[in-house]
Each structure stands twice: as C-alpha cells, then as structure tokens.
Amino acid sequence: MRVPPQSRVRPSRSDAIVGASTSIVGGNLGTRIARFSPPWGVLRILILLAAAGYLIGYALDYSCVSGGWLSPDRYEQLCYSDIPALYGFRGFAEGFIPYVQTPPGGQPLEYPVITGVFMWVAALLTTPIASLIGADPLVVFFDINILGLLPFLLIAVVATALTVRHRPWDAAMVALAPTMILGATINWDLIPIALTALAMLAWARNKPGWAGIALGFAVAAKFYPILLLGAFAILALRSGRWRPSLVLLGSTALTWVLVNLPFAIANFDGWWYFYSFNSQRGVDFGSFWYAASVLGAPAVPADALNTVASGTFLVLFLAIAVLSLATKRRPRLAQVAFLVIAAFVLSGKVYSPQYVLWLVPLAVMARPRWRDFLIWQAGEVVYFAAIWWHLAGYDIENAKALGTELYAVATFIHIAATVYFAVMVIRDMLNPKHDPVRTDGVIDDEDDPGGGPFDGAPDVVTIAGVSRPAPQSRRSARS
After folding, report:
1. CA distance 172 to 9
2. Splitting the chain (479 residues) into consecutive groups of 10 residues, what average pLDDT does each group show?
3. Which of 335, 379, 394, 426 has the most C-beta neighbours closer than 10 Å?
4. Which domain holds residue 138?
C-alpha cells in the first residue's frame, strides 16, 4: 500500500549532508523538487537519477568504446570492462553455446548460468545488428549488454526504495553511488544485485517463498547471495521465526536446482567449471592476502589459501552471529546482511573493483547516512583508480603506472573504508539510538521495517540470556 507523503522521511531534514546541499533545489524542504513530486512521484525521480548516473558511467567509457579497448589505454583511462574481453575469448563471437560447447583452444565460461545465458542472448543479437549497421561487433556486444543491464539497475533502485516504505529516498544513494556510476559497466553484477534486492523486498512484504525464488535466481547469477541465508539463519535463531526462514531456504534451493539442472545434464564439466575455477583460484588483485604479501608479510602457501580464506570468513561470520545474538536489541536484517557480505569480500582471495556494488544496496538499508556512505565510497573510488593504473604497467618494463607498493596501500584504503562503514553499522546494532532507521521519528519505536517476519518478533535465543521483547510491529502505520 502507498505511504502518504507526510509519513515519508525527508532526507533534507533528517540528513545533514543532504540538508546542507539542497539550497540549489529550494532550500531545506526542497520546494523546487516538491513541485515536481505530484506528477512524477518518488520512484520516477529515482529512476531518472539512476538512468542519469548510468549514462554518465557509459560516457566515461566512451574513450574505450571508440578505441576498441586497446591495452594499456583501457587501464590508463579507467574504462576497462570484462564485457568486450569475453566476447572473443569465450566463443560468443563464433556462436558457441555457453556450458554446452567450449571453443577450440579456449576454456568454458567461468560464470553461473543466469549470467551466461544473458551473455549468450546478447551475443545472438550482436551479429545481425553489427551486420545491419556495419559496426564493430565488439562495440555492438558491449552496447547491447549495457542496454540490457540498465533495467537491472532500475530494479535494484526501485526495490531498495520499496523495502522500507517510509524511506524511499534512501535509494537515491544506490542510484548516485560513485562506485555504481564508475563500476556498473565492468561486469554483469547488476543482475544478481537486482535479484537480491527483489529478494529483500519480497521478504519485507512477508513473502518468503517469492523471496527464495528471487534469491535462487540471484545465486544462479552470482554465487555470493547464498551467503545471505546465513544472515537469515542468525535472525531466525534469535527470533524463533524458523518457518518463513525454512520456506526461504527451500524455495531458494529449488529455484537454483531447476535453473542449473538442464545445463548440468547437458554438459556437467562445462557447467561445473565456474565452481572448480573459483575453488582453484589463487591469491589475486585486491585481496588482503595479495596486498599484505606485497608489503612484506609472509605469503599464504597456495595449497593452504582456500583453507585460510574460508577459515577467516568463517571466523568473521561466527563473530557476526555472536554479536547479533548478544546485542540488547535484535539487529535489523539489512545490518546483519551487510556485515556478512562485507566479511566475505574482505576475506576473499580476490577483490574485483565491481564487487563493491554487491554491498551498495545493503549498505543503504543498513545505515542510510550520506556522510558515512560517501566516506566509504571515497575509499572505494581510490581503489578503483589504483587497480587500473597499476594494471596499465603490469608486466610492462618502464611503463608509467602505479607501483606495486602504492597499489597495495590503495587496497588497504578500500579495506579500511569498508571496515569503517561496518563499524558504524555495528555501533548502531549495539546502540540503536544511533540507527537512522529506528530513530527517524516517523514511526514511534519501530523495530525492523524491512525485516518482514522478523519485524516485531520477540527474542527467543540470546547469548546474554536476557530477552528483551521487540516492539510490536507497526506495519499498519507504514502502509
């Protein structure tokens, strides 16, 4: 149901950064924007913001598009993308079907099936369109993918806006995130991001079955969303709301199996390659392990890397679980979800610059404050520039590029920025009076407006042994 405008949080009033920057749009109440709100609506404005940011990101890639992604210019000009690179290297240019066929002398596709099918459909459209307009197929493939990925960005923004009904403007942080503008065109990560946002929205609307279907598709597009099941399990343990959580788990598993089974039957080795590739992958750019070894720390032996990285994530996950069970008040779902995914990207064997996008919608729902969000984003932008400028001279003698040591420092800047935002989320969990969602003044003493079945549930299991019943759900006041 629609939330009346007077029941929505106004960022110009509730966020100091927004309030200080709104003089150009009518002052503290944003009167000039308000004039456009009745015919356009909040969601339409958010869609326009997201599309504008996406267009800016594409414009920043133009030098690579016009130059055909020639190395090292693609790195020096910060416009590298995996999309055109994989067009020729994974058999799409020759019409091979991913997973089912492998190009001679090449390797199977190292992406899950939803992403692979999306790439394949884009490749099928590329040849006739390129022939019709007489354009470079590489450029056409890139443009088709960029156009096809735009709806996923809009879905992610709209789903984030609708998850917490009285805070739709928070989704502007997703639409205008600097890393979203810079990194959305690197890879196909917008697909799982949008599907994960839909899963969070469905859960917030008390539809765990639909949430599981969306999450199952997300896992079939990129494997990281499966970790969110851990966040749901932690809160199910504390709240005792196991039935919807098990429905979520079952529908996620069933959806993932139904999507993957045809490809596994058609060619198991081609389908399995994504999983074997990631299990055998060594330490790589962007990871803590790589940066630490560059700066002189002992390198983790290759045969122990999986154990060390997985063990580190497990320790961090257990720490998140203990924290979530020990706080006086049950954390919100978005807070726990953000911490779980952040722990994964910080402990992983590799950190590609687009991985930050996985965290953006979760961060917006976990702590919707522009100051902390922009501090975190600034650290990630530093890393975004550093990785490309470093690769511009990688294995090239006398190249003008960022040195290995400075690149390692930039890696630790991105790690520190993510840790900073995580610390702010943890502070909100320990002391809810700092939580912008629980103290926005719109709903008195609200619990978790995006928590779905967890919203308003009493505590059942706590480490401290003291159960503090959560406030009764005020869902009717938000609808």
Report:
1. 13
2. 54 57 52 51 93 96 84 85 89 89 84 96 95 92 97 98 92 97 96 98 97 98 97 96 97 98 95 90 91 91 91 97 94 97 96 96 97 97 95 75 92 98 97 90 73 93 65 45
3. 335
4. 5-478
